[in-house]
User: Fold these one by one.
Assistant:
Number 1:
Amino acid sequence: MKAIRIHTFGGPEAIVYENVAEPQLKAGEVLVKTAAAGVNPIDWKTCSGGGAAAFIGDLPFTPGWEFSGQVIACGADVSGFESGDRVFGFVRFPEAAGCYAEEIAVPAEQICLLPPSCDAIEAAGLALAGLTAWQALFDKGGLHAKQRVLILAAAGGVGHLAVQLAKWKGATVIGTASAANHDFIKDLGCDQVIDYTSQHVAEMVSDVDVVIDGVGGKTGIDALACLKATGTFVTLPSNTKDEIIAAGEVLGLKVLPLRVEPNAAQLRLLAELNAQQRVRLNIAATYPLEQAADAFRDIASGHTQGKVILTV
């Protein structure tokens, strides 16, 4: 079968589309014929030697942690799935999962049946960003109805799903984005939009209950001023989390980092909301699997509106 692999860490030029051995099904696993795989910043960062590179083991490495597809076979001790089922999931993170491949063997406990009305291409990009948004808003942030949430990078992969989930929860949603994305995030449910290129967020917003920081660095530190004293600030970029936590401690504020975790129960809720069209994934672009290098170049720009998807 065909898969994307790297044999050495590097940029898009390190990406190789080649023949690999078919996966061996183990107990507790489901063999899936892949329909599509989501492309995320963690993918290209890991392939370049950062991200989750410390967890993936020896090279060669096949990137990808989220997918959609159809069940081919089930291993021993698997129940709830059968051949022909449409499924999607976010699996094994931060260890290697190998979703950029024609077939994958995945833990049954980390995947979910895909409702008939859900599109497989859309579902391929929903799991990682959707779980990140869910866990940031609700598990870490404790967001509930009638609270106010500020979402930095509201037009991005995680951000645009966080806007929809927060609105579904009944919160007042404030989002930052460039002017070109204002209509997009307003349509998703943003009650207030801030142009980060021309406005200072700390001058525009104060006393919010939850901040979801999808940017990090100085932008994240500046946004600490928007949080109320009893609020929660959730920062997503791992490379700047320590400095933002330290800045929050100086101000006496609660700052929490997040490493997204596989969670089948939360996937089921996301799938239900997607089937009801309460939460939709905006697909910025799709590429065939063999053009994964081009997909990496696209997402590395940091300006995609929604998600980039590889079709298999």
Number 2:
Amino acid sequence: MITIKNETIAEVPALHVVKDLYQLEQDIPTIFFFHGFTSAKEHNLHVAYLLAEKGFRVILPDAMYHGERYDTSSGVSRDLAFWEIILTSIHELGVMKGELVDRGMINGDKIGAIGTSMGAITMFGALTQYPWIQTAVSFMGTAYYEAFAHGLIHNAENRGLTIEEKMKEEVLRKIKPFDLSTQLDKLEGRPLFIWHGKDDQVVPYSLSEKLYEELLANYEDTPDKLQLLAEEKIGHKVSRSAVLKSVDWFIQHLQTKVSS
């Protein structure tokens, strides 16, 4: 029976999903799942269910200003806080992992990360900081922080938002250390699965294709550790085939025994 526990991990509201109740405290391969912009941890439970069935622990945190952490009285514009949310999630990943290690739930490097849209952008940034992430999956995200930031700024200004030059410069300065596209060597050959719909109007598919092509040379000796799955006539919505492929990817690269 799939077990879902709503708990706080390192002060972050999260869902903790495992196949059986006794696994909540066991040392088993663990996957952190980051949701998209304006979404929440509960919205990816269908993926967590499939992963848990295969013997993984899945941790789904709420990002800042999302889910249980959403506060309409804060006066914070989530549009303007986009990169603050991402950088906070990257930091919180390290803290959450530390607490799970202290609780005896993680011992070693059987740790994966997956994200959808903003969550995948978070995942790419986390790869620059945490070599203990053994394998990763991106659903319609991008590793090109600076290029995507310029696009977001342009779109926000087209909607009538005024963004001061100092704020733009500060955002670009803060995100620079997390821009994986400028430091691809930090992947160090770790398995990476990239999925993207070709008709995505939110996060351009071209950025995923570009990343894949730039990484090919780094994976010449291990081509099975890098894959791009592009789907025709799919917009900014994760397909079932993408979900199923991500489950297979973690089975292959987190070295877990498939549960019946």
Number 3:
Amino acid sequence: MIRIENESLSVEIAELGAEVRSVLHKGTELSYMWSGDPAYWGRVSPVLFPIVGRLKDGRYIAEDKTYELSQHGFLRDTVFKVSETQADSVTFTFESNGKYQDVYPYEFRVEIGYRLEEDRLYVEWNVNNLEKDKQMYFSIGAHPAFRVPLKTGEEAADYKLYLKPVKEEQVMAYELVDGLIRMKDQPAVLPAVSIQSALFENDALVYDKIEEVRLESSKGNGVAVSLPGFPYVGIWSKYDAKAGTIAPFVCIEPWFGIADTTDSTSVLSQKAGIQQLAPEAAFTTSYHITFF
């Protein structure tokens, strides 16, 4: 486990998946990340690659071949190398080296950087296509889970979601049908929404053209995830249909990609939200989380 810290935050990150496992705010004395209790969901903040969400029939077609790949891909279960570290920042690197040719026909390198600035955690992704003569198709996404409630005596209903759309853009909402995505007929309406189990009865809430999602308690504590330039965001908690309850966390997920659509052709280059990289080219993006 790697720890980075500054005057405001102490963050622990595992080499497995380059996954943030805990964030402690020294001012509020609150721990913000979900514990990873497998009774609900055994992960904390996995990085999703080379797909986001589920594939139709669990398969896709690339380079004239059919591959099988489970939901969210394989990067979350790989061990990264620490390539650079300072007191308040760290960079993790993973290179494929032929290990995934049976499920993904491209050679790649992914670098994940974490940097602290005051009460914010900055996350940067660099995806490199190592192929010399092939276009590479991929998606990448974040899946951080935040504790709800943060304090003893609070309830989930004490927390609200605030979504800030990209200026002058019309936000569309999507629904999941057996894990596959479908755009809703009407543009999204974005009032502040209280956290209630019914929100997640049909899986995640998914939107496009959102630049910030804020999750805040009535007492003023919470997180703000700033994701300028990201085409999609998912908001999710694990729903228990039998009990009609949700797990004690809410995920806010910036995505460069999305689950297959219900009418998907399964061809990777035609997949909704897919990113394309020229041979030996690189893709870089970042988002940040403010803890308060």
Number 4:
Amino acid sequence: MYPRLKIDIPKIKHNAKVLRELCQNNGIEPMVVTKVHCAHPGITKAMVEVGYTMLADSRVENLKVLKSLAPGVKTVLLRLPMVSEINSVIEFADISLNSELKTLRALSSEAVKANKVHEVIIMVDLGDLREGVLPEDLESVVKEVLSMQNLAIAGIGVNLTCYGGVIPDDNNLGRLVELAKLIETKFNISLKYISGGNSSSLYKLIDNTLPKGITNLRLGEAVVLGRETAYGEKIENTYEDAFLLEAQIIELKEKDSVPTGKIGMDAFGNNPSFIDKGKMKRAIVAIGRQDVRVEGLTPVDAGVEIIGASSDHLILDVTGASRALEVGTVIGFRVDYGALLSLMTSKYVEKISE
């Protein structure tokens, strides 16, 4: 079946092992994030075999899968819980990231009903402007959470780069460590996790400049694609090519490079522009924006260029293709994080494990 995504699990497992060892050698217990591959069973089992003790995801539906795939391994809800899903959070997540007292009260109430102790990591906004309490409000939030039944404060954390693009540095990560020490001293508690961000914090770990006191990182893209995400650099001794998208040519013709007629909006409300290259050999492959973030694809074949896409057609300039092509030929593409996320989510793309 095409389109299909080929997954090289041994390469991903190698990356996971390299990164886990890097973290452990520096006193850090990492969480491995499964959301980009939607808790794929083969990939998840490889993470557990490598020794990861915490599996993290932003969707409760995936945590439910993780519980069945890896009993005994801690599950972590990355996205702040919705009030409407509190029952499921308590059932399927051992730990959740939080910033809202209303949600925390609901978690406490449900945990009491379920006779469970639920661990929480209080997120702090240190400039990226996604989730998190403001630093000046942290003490009051911690004080109230400590009074809630069946909740245990496991740590504090920060998210960086995902929304605002703010790079982890000595200032924001150092501030997180300072806040953790303040909370531990003021309330006479010990925090298991000082969670210093995601794969974008790895560059400081690699450079041996990560502030002392960070005890946890949440690793997703680095594991599956072998890249730190602050600057997009390849991590030494890891693979970047563990995924390959394959799609089949359904039309191959020589056509003009510029449409004929008055140009209006395309199917997605954009006003497209075109470069006149004269006649070109154009191929259409059977995949489109419904399945993949097209901008995150890179053709494997030399001389093949992506020139556009609609919801279910990807259009290529194959004039300079390095091999003979015909209708039915399969074209391969490397994927970035955004493309991988959409492909793994699409039910129309078959997943093949190697």
